[in-house]
């Protein structure tokens, strides 16, 4: 039996409140196959890990982040293990001034608190107080800065074999030439096709995969030394340097900022 996150009519119908929200806490993994709906959806994580499939990209959603999915955009959703998060559904006319393409954002304490309030509403037309809170959600989304949480997926089966193997073991430090030989490709072909199909070089793709995995582990409170080893770095300093170059801060400061946001929204 399907367990709905929110009443289906609040997702598919243009009628009803212009904004509806729901929160979800679960102990087991949850997977939703590719689908779309007329309302735009903003989905965020509070704890645990969620991924969103959009076109040929996989968007990882670590804690205190969210993904905006415009109306009619086909997407799939998967959570891994224990997870707590939320979703907001906005009617299509109210999406006109919101981003026209999917994007990842880092949420604010104000946005999360407004969503928490909205998730308690019954799904009826909004009163004046509720409408003001709903407008806060829309304003926060409109003003948010885009973050790079997407990992493009190639189409060539040989490249997919490589990316799947890397995703399973990001500590694998084989060079491009070694991966090419393993997959039966010439190094130049691998390099050229990787860039053409993902928009990233092989080295950039692997680093992005490591950054996203690092965000997941940092959000779960895993020790920095353990993260560095899991991602294939010889020492903690090299990992911290990569993290700083990619995100503009160190893992410790990133986690402290998340904890500050959580406390502010509590």
TrEMBL record:
<dbReference type="InterPro" id="IPR020449">
    <property type="entry name" value="Tscrpt_reg_AraC-type_HTH"/>
</dbReference>
<dbReference type="InterPro" id="IPR014710">
    <property type="entry name" value="RmlC-like_jellyroll"/>
</dbReference>
<feature type="domain" description="HTH araC/xylS-type">
    <location>
        <begin position="160"/>
        <end position="257"/>
    </location>
</feature>
<protein>
    <submittedName>
        <fullName>AraC family transcriptional regulator</fullName>
    </submittedName>
</protein>
<dbReference type="GO" id="GO:0003700">
    <property type="term" value="F:DNA-binding transcription factor activity"/>
</dbReference>
<keyword id="KW-0678">Repressor</keyword>
<dbReference type="InterPro" id="IPR018060">
    <property type="entry name" value="HTH_AraC"/>
</dbReference>
<dbReference type="InterPro" id="IPR011051">
    <property type="entry name" value="RmlC_Cupin_sf"/>
</dbReference>
<dbReference type="Pfam" id="PF02311">
    <property type="entry name" value="AraC_binding"/>
</dbReference>
<keyword id="KW-0010">Activator</keyword>
<keyword id="KW-0238">DNA-binding</keyword>
<dbReference type="GO" id="GO:0043565">
    <property type="term" value="F:sequence-specific DNA binding"/>
</dbReference>
<dbReference type="InterPro" id="IPR003313">
    <property type="entry name" value="AraC-bd"/>
</dbReference>
<dbReference type="InterPro" id="IPR009057">
    <property type="entry name" value="Homeodomain-like_sf"/>
</dbReference>
<dbReference type="Pfam" id="PF12833">
    <property type="entry name" value="HTH_18"/>
</dbReference>
<dbReference type="InterPro" id="IPR018062">
    <property type="entry name" value="HTH_AraC-typ_CS"/>
</dbReference>
<keyword id="KW-0805">Transcription regulation</keyword>
<keyword id="KW-0804">Transcription</keyword>
């Amino acid at each position: 039996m399907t367990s709905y996150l929110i009443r289906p009519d609040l997702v598919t119908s243009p009628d009803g409140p212009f904004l509806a929200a729901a929160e979800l806490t679960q102990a087991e993994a949850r997977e939703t196959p590719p689908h779309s709906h007329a309302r735009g959806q903003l989905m965020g994580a509070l704890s645990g890990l969620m991924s969103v499939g959009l076109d040929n990209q996989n968007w990882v959603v670590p804690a205190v982040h969210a993904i905006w999915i415009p109306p009619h955009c086909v997407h799939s959703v998967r959570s891994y293990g224990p997870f707590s998060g939320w979703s907001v559904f906005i009617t299509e006319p109210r999406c006109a001034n919101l981003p026209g393409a999917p994007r990842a954002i880092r949420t604010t304490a104000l946005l999360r608190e407004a969503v928490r309030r909205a998730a308690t509403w019954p799904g009826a037309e909004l009163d004046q107080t509720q409408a003001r809170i709903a407008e806060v959600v829309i304003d926060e989304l409109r003003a948010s800065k885009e973050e790079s949480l997407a990992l493009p997926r190639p189409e060539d089966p040989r490249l997919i074999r490589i990316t799947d193997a890397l995703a399973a073991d990001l500590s694998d430090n084989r060079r491009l030439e070694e991966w090419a030989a393993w997959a039966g490709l010439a190094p130049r072909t691998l390099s050229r096709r990787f860039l053409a199909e993902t928009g990233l070089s092989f080295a950039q793709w692997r680093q992005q995969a490591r950054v996203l995995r690092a965000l997941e582990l940092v959000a779960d409170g895993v020790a920095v030394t353990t993260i560095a080893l899991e991602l294939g770095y010889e020492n903690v300093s090299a990992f911290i340097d990569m993290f700083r170059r990619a995100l503009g801060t160190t893992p410790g400061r990133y986690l402290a900022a998340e904890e500050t946001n959580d406390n502010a929204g509590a």
